[in-house]
Design brief:
Elements: H1 2-17, E1 23-25, E2 27-29, E3 39-41, E4 49-57, E5 60-68, H2 70-79, E6 91-96, H3 123-138
Antiparallel strand pairs: 1-3, 2-5, 4-5, 4-6
Length: 139
């Protein structure tokens, strides 16, 4: 019975956290396409980054946004770094790994003052609860 409970708990915990999926904006347009209809779910455990290309052409600025694998995105962005000038025929490629990070730039938030209490992460509390639960099952 303990083994069944332990294996069920581990399966639940591991099953919920192993599949990594990110959402990105995906489009190819002459205006910044950072609206909900352009949000896509990237391929689980394959496309782990968002990519944003900004091309400056004679007819204006072109945007290309998509999901990408980290290897391909980082190679592309480093390969085009010398062409990212902001001038005509400029190509800038950037990579990021948080949901919808290839969208519009977020406004900078003011730095919290020393008197403001920061939220602490809940991971240690979760880990402690798991240890207590496992010890009660095994003992």
């Amino acid at each position: 019975m303990r083994l069944l409970a332990l294996s069920s708990l581990l399966l639940l915990l591991l099953g919920s956290g192993l599949a990594l999926q990110i959402q990105c904006y995906q489009c190819e347009m002459t205006h910044d396409c950072s609206t909900p209809e352009f949000i896509v779910n990237c391929t689980v455990n394959v496309q782990d980054m968002c990519q944003k290309e900004v091309l400056v052409k004679e007819d204006g600025v072109h945007y290309r946004k998509s999901c990408a694998s980290s290897g391909a995105c980082l190679i592309a962005s480093s390969g085009y770094q010398q062409f990212c000038t902001g001038k005509l025929n400029s190509v800038c490629i950037s990579c990021c790994n948080t949901p919808l990070c290839n969208g519009p730039r977020q406004k900078k938030r003011p730095q919290p003052s020393a008197s403001i209490t920061l939220n602490t992460p809940r991971l240690p509390v979760l880990s402690f609860n798991i240890i207590i639960l496992l010890s009660s099952i095994l003992c």
